[in-house]
Amino acid sequence: MDLLNTLVDKGLRRELPTREEALSVLATSDDDLLDVVAAAGKVRRHWFGRRVKLNYLVNLKSGLCPEDCSYCSQRLGSKAGILKYTWLKPDEASKAAAAGLAGGAKRVCLVASGRGPTDRDVDRVSDTIKAIKDQNEDVEVCACLGLLSDGQAERLREAGADAYNHNLNTSEATYGEITTTHTYADRVDTVQKAHAAGLSACSGLIAGMGESDEDLVDVVFSLRELDPDSVPVNFLIPFEGTPLAKEWNLTPQRCLRILAMVRFVCPDVEVRIAGGREVHLRSMQPLALNLANSIFLGDYLTSEGQAGKADLDMIADAGFEVEGAGEVTLPQHRADVAAAGGGCGSHESAGCGSHEGAGCGSHEGAGCGSVCGAAPEPAVSEPAVNEPRTDLVAVRRRGAGTDLAPNA
């Protein structure tokens, strides 16, 4: 049985692939790309059908962040010409959210720059959640406010938050090269706090920061162990004025391989194509819907996305349908556990790719070879360099924090 058949079988059983198998997906050739997409698509359709969940971002507070995350246009010392404003009032945030909900979004993601919220900030966000839910009873609200202190996740849950987002972003081994003002362990702790409070955990990664295939597999395996309900896959937007402005390491084909690998490792999780899809997937975006079951509608925090109507047309033209407000996103076994306030998936029968010895070593007898029948070398591979497309990096000048209508 070849690699892809093995991965499909494991995905349908929620069995964790080996690291060698995950690396093999990233090492496949462009000639085999459609086979990889088709295989991962079988897993996606098994758990999520042809539904696409729409999410909408509201940037509650933009810029002026004291953290030094190299990828971020809002970081300390950023010279990117982004919008900068302090906290939106609850009615302003609710108005911004309404535009996304009118466009078909079922989840609103409330984001604020900063290291983490003060207790007063939690009060502000709680008032905003109430304002949004008073107007839209069925909406899901996810908060993304940085590192949480003890008790804050519980307060957000009591205020009506459904989920909390805090991404791991990259592997533990390389995290210190990206950020120095907080640690990888800090991020893990916040995801665990959200889980413990009964919030649906949302945690993902950023690809394209110069990381190796090993790093990508490591962070996705770490996410599997943390067991979030949703995994956003961001593709670095190389903003001028940030330390990673020259990092153009992604091609559309590599983005698809990354999404496929995430789907195989996290088969029954909401995989969301997040920031950077327009910049790096470009005309291949519709193909990515065969791998991910969730996207952001319209614009992002500090950058513009493609027109909201174009998103909806893309979904329809690709043969998918927008997930309705009354539909449950997660497969029943995960939804039941989430409703009970616990973790969201079991790791029993995880096979030889379980979490013991989570380093990058090889697994003897791991597998079935690549698509062409030969196992790849386990050495770090160098990603292909993409031609810079700075014309596709547009700073957001509309929506939240402006007087202009949002893109939704």
Q: What would you note in describing this structure?
A:
The chain has 408 residues and is α/β, with parallel strands linked by helices. Helices cover 35% and strands 11% of the residues. It contains 14 helices and ten strands. It has helices at 3-13, 19-26, 33-48, 90-102, 119-135, 152-159, 175-178, 184-196, 213-226, 252-265, 277-280, 285-288, 308-317, 332-339; strands at residues 51-61, 107-112, 140-144, 163-165, 200-202, 205-207, 230-235, 270-273, 294-296, 321-322. Strands 1, 2, 3, 4, 5, 6, 7, 8, 9 and 10 form a ten-stranded parallel beta sheet that branches. Helix 1 (3-13) runs parallel beside helix 3 (33-48), helix 2 packs across helix 9 and helix 4 (90-102) crosses helix 5 (119-135). The protein is globular, with a radius of gyration of 20 Å. The relative contact order is 0.19.
Q: What is the succession of H and E elements? A: HHHEHEHEHEHHEEHEHEHHEHEH
Radius of gyration: 20 Å
Structural class: alpha/beta
β-strand percent reads 5-15%
**Major β-sheet profile:** 10 strands, parallel
Low-confidence stretches: 343-382
Q: How widely separated are the two ends?
A: 45 Å
Given the structure, what is the number of helices? 14
Question: What's the short version?
Answer:
With 408 residues, the chain is of the alpha/beta class. It is built from 14 helices and ten strands. It has helices at 3-13, 19-26, 33-48, 90-102, 119-135, 152-159, 175-178, 184-196, 213-226, 252-265, 277-280, 285-288, 308-317, 332-339, and strands spanning 51-61, 107-112, 140-144, 163-165, 200-202, 205-207, 230-235, 270-273, 294-296, 321-322.
